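Complex 342.
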Amino acid sequence: MRATVDRPGLDTQGRSPLIKIRRVRKGDLSKVRDVVEQAFLDFYERQMGTRPRQVFGGAQYVHHRWLMEPWGCFVAEEGDGKIVGAAVAVMWGTLGLVGPIAVLPNYQNQDIGQQLLAACQGFFDENKAVMQGLATYPYSPRHLVPYQKFGYRPRGLVVITAKPLDRREIVQATRAARPAVSVRRYSTLEEARKKAAIVKLHRITNGIFRGLDLGKEVEIADGLALGDTLILEKGREAIGFAIYHTPGVSEAPQGSLYVKFLAIDPRHRKPEHLHALLGALEDLAHEAGLLRVVAGVYTYYWTAYQALLERGYQMDLIMVRMKRGKQIDDEDPNDLVLDDWR
Ligand SMILES: CC(C)(COP(=O)(O)OP(=O)(O)OC[C@H]1O[C@@H](n2cnc3c(N)ncnc32)[C@H](O)[C@@H]1OP(=O)(O)O)[C@@H](O)C(=O)NCCC(=O)NCCS
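Predicted structure with coenzyme A bound:
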């Protein structure tokens, strides 16, 4: 049953407004950001009883995502042109991800979220997504229900962890853990070598999930200086990588280096390789004067999850991964992957 109070979105006869779903245009971006912030501020206020000063600790999701994947970004517009909802989707090769999705508080429970989700599903179909997924709040029926109606099923927990940085500890951990491997920053490669590097990284992700491709995330982090990508090399072979964002107009919360995605080639999946990348990320964060490293992990990747906890990462936020498409849980618990699908 739908709520009947506090719904200025309704017309004088109590009917839902006429809503048009269309793709985001450049001129919409600040409004879309505003809609996302208002919707999440309201949600967190209801959860915590007080309105936070800031949403997502200052992390931004709209502008760069639209530049990266404009065909995956949608708004819900009322007849008079007012933007009342937005959804952002992206293809990582064969994997389609939704989020954030947001509807202005007074327009919620009027089917707008589901219309936006339907647009994202259309985008996934156009791009032949083999699997689709998202991260949401496991305790909230109003989050689980709309996704379930589209065939998404709740699977395991996603834990967003954070490690406060302490210089002495970092140096010790890094020294202890770093084996005979080296780390290179994608941004330092000559332009002519960048495409070849992306192909190598694609080989790594393809070994984790067939067709998984993070190339556009690597390129946007570099192109907009959202952060960078560390490539872990053994001799001349790339055996792992980590895409990270630093604060600014990126997905990193204030004061934090955010690990957007990290993977070790399954043929080289030794925990010390994961530690080598984490050590390098912690050093970078420290050198940049940041206070924390934030990394999300899907708990089905048990070895990676345990490695984070052993390394002093603390649980900050618990979410649930929802999936649609392949019905099996195909994660190998020994694969060393850090991602949160937010
Ligand atoms: C989540 C969100 C996008 C949903 O948008 P919405 O327009 O309200 O969603 P819809 O009206 O299309 O669908 C909501 C469904 O959940 C159901 N629902 C809502 N509260 C519910 C509850 N407590 N128990 C069971 N079902 C519930 C509604 O009845 C509706 O289903 P129905 O169509 O079968 O009636 C919106 O609430 C929002 O912006 N929240 C804040 C930001 C956010 O958390 N985004 C998502 C992060 S993953």
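The first helix runs from residue 29 to 48.
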